[in-house]
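Support request from a user on the community tier.

User writes: "When I paste my structure tokens into the form, the page sometimes reloads and wipes my input. The last time it worked, I copied everything first. Here is what I submitted, just in case something in the input itself triggers the reload:"
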């Protein structure tokens, strides 16, 4: 059963990469195969799907549609064009801006909030928004590991290792993983400059776009603030973030209905929800649930232990780079959930502090999703945004940015964590 699950999983990802225009039917057929074969029991379907992520996506997509209609992204694009001398620096500023937000807000939500600015800039400059939005996506994935509230995997590590919000900054008198992530972010700036080195066209904003309604901007800011506040609620229900995003969107719809009597805004916001992307993610959650049930992820964890032996440096290197490779194809949430107790056991056997392995696991698993366009939920959301805007993202377009970005950031964090914590 485990071999069958592994073959089906590998075939699914091969076809998703080879047939980017047909990813939804591929993943839905694969999920059906896992269910029909009995590898994923019907009783585990609901628990395998991360409803919180899907609810966050749907709610934020709707709110962002109201945000775009208000003209604020175009206004922000104009302001950014005043600050940046050329397209190359626009890419740098947008990536760093997305990274700062992503340190405190879920990566998918960050992409949905910042992408409209990138689209508006590309439209004004009459250029393709594909490289700009890919840069935003990979940067948001990087910064998700910086704080306790930046990503689901960070929250998981904080809960398992009993780490507080401040421990991500300083712990046991040493710099925490926040500084490893920020050093990685700094290293990616020259990477972005190199990738956009030919984009030296000067940019100007001929006139600043007026904003028709500031309420959607307030809604989006309220969304961010509520997500941050919810992260400090230790015993919060599993669907808290999703409920927040849907509730904020509902407020926007009710205002458009009862106060503005604007049926167009309501229709536009609802149809802007990318149900194809939601279906793709739901199918992927079922596929990952299938290989988890079959024990594939557990076998990967045991393989780490067998190969690593008694060398801490070898084990640490294996955890970091193995996590990068696995997370390029496996959702990092079940992977990290499986590996945390394994890493803790390894540290106990070796008689060393577990934090060097914890931080290596988090950095590798968080950044590995940047290697492929289907390695992280935010990448899938970005591709969905571009598809709705009329742009098809080829695998080589994504990997041209994602691979050097990942290698630079992971290498920097890998060295920092080792020299500080080993």
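"...and here is what came back when it finally went through:"
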């Amino acid at each position: 059963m485990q071999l069958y699950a592994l073959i089906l999983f590998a075939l699914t990802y091969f076809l998703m990469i080879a047939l980017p225009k047909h990813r939804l039917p591929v993943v839905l057929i694969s999920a059906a195969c896992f269910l029909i074969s009995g590898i994923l029991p019907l009783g585990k379907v609901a628990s395998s799907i991360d409803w919180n992520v899907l609810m966050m996506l749907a709610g934020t997509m709707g709110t962002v549609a109201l945000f775009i209609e208000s003209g604020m992204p175009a206004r922000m694009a104009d302001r950014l064009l005043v600050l940046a001398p050329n397209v190359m620096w626009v890419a740098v500023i947008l990536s760093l801006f997305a990274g700062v937000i992503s340190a405190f807000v879920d990566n998918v939500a960050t992409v949905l909030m910042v992408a409209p600015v990138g689209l508006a800039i590309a439209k004004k400059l009459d250029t393709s928004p594909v490289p700009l939005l890919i840069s935003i996506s990979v940067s948001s994935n990087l910064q998700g590991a910086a704080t306790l509230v930046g990503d689901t995997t960070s929250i998981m590590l904080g809960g398992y290792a009993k780490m507080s919000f401040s421990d991500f900054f300083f712990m046991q008198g040493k710099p925490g993983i926040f500084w490893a992530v920020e050093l990685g972010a700094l290293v990616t700036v020259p990477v972005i400059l190199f990738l956009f080195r030919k984009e030296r066209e000067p940019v100007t904003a001929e006139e600043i776009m007026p904003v028709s309604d500031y309420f959607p901007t307030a809604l989006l800011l309220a969304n961010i603030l509520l997500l941050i506040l919810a992260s400090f609620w230790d015993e919060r229900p599993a669907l808290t973030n999703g409920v927040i995003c849907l509730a904020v969107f509902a407020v926007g719809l009710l205002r458009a209905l009862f106060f503005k009597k604007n049926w167009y805004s309501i229709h536009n916001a609802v149809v802007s929800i990318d149900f194809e992307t939601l279906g793709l993610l739901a199918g992927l959650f079922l596929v990952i649930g299938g290989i988890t049930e079959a024990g594939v992820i557990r076998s990967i964890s045991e393989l780490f232990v067998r190969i690593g032996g008694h060398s801490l440096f070898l084990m640490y290197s294996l955890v970091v780079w193995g996590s990068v490779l696995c997370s390029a194809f496996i959702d990092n949430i079940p992977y990290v959930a499986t590996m945390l107790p394994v890493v803790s056991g390894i540290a106990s056997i070796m008689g060393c502090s577990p934090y060097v392995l914890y931080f290596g696991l988090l950095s590798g698993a968080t950044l590995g999703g940047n290697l492929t366009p289907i390695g992280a939920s935010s990448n899938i959301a970005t591709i969905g945004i571009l598809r709705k805007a009329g742009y098809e993202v080829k695998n080589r377009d994504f990997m041209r940015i994602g691979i050097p970005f990942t290698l630079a950031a992971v290498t920097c964090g890998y060295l920092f964590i080792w020299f500080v914590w080993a």
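Agent notes: The reload is a front-end session timeout and is unrelated to the input. Residues 2-421 form one domain. Residues 395-421 form the longest helix (27 residues). Escalated to web team.
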